[in-house]
Amino acid sequence: METTRIAAAAAEAEATRLEHLYRDDAQVSLKASQAAQAQSAEASAQARAAALGFSLQWGPLASWSAGQRRALLEALTHGRQLLVRADVPAHPLGSTVDRHAVVVIDGVNVSARVLGPLPRTDGPAQTAGWLLQLERTPGALGPGARIEVRLQAAATSGLLVPAEALVYAEKGSYVYRRHRTSSAAGFHYEAVPVRPMSRVGSAWLVEGLAPEDQVVVQGAGVLWSLQGVGSFSAAEEEHD
After folding, report:
1. CATH code for the domain of 177
2. How many domains does the chain have?
3. Nearest 5°: CA angle at 38, between 33 and 41?
4. Which H/E stretch holds residue 166?
5. Residues 43 and 95 in one domain
6. What is the pLDDT of residue 239?
7. pLDDT confidence tier of residue 132, bands split at 50, 70 and 90
8. Which residue range(s) make up the domain with 118?
9. Is 80 exceeded by the pLDDT of residue 172?
């Protein structure tokens, strides 16, 4: 990626130089100036493609500076550090993973730093990846080795709701909340947007509800099919 970026910068500088010479009538032809501009555009496209490929492959490292990446590469080359991909079931963990993880190598717990999620998932297993950085690893750990990794969810606030209470739509996730009213029906239902954060057994930790909220567990899909995003009155249900 650094090579293509440097090549693109050099091509752009050369194109700019030739354009200035052409405009100053310094014996540079229009054809030569246009060729340099075309070469600069091609080099820039290659640099963007390389940056995108690097971001998909290495995720959080794409936001590092060139100096940080060089220092990491040197540490990896001399065996002072290791990079490990941790695969987890592909569900939205988001930013709920703690920055500290544990890698078990030959029965020894080794502390690791979680650098961030990897955009590219493992196709056959449908797992999401997280990039970990290890220092001072005991023993030999070669490419392709399989080890145990323990990720820890970061402290977060939310409420647990049964998985069957969630309704998924184009604009996000919803639950149906029960509201008491002064009408004869006594209560009605309304769709409330929530943000699922992590799966906990058969439930989801979600954001967007209050502790006193009562949500529909059985029949949430029926309410959705009848009303969609909006409210559904219990009086209407009895009337039908």
Report:
1. 2.40.420.20
2. 3
3. 125
4. none
5. no
6. 42
7. very high
8. 79-150
9. yes
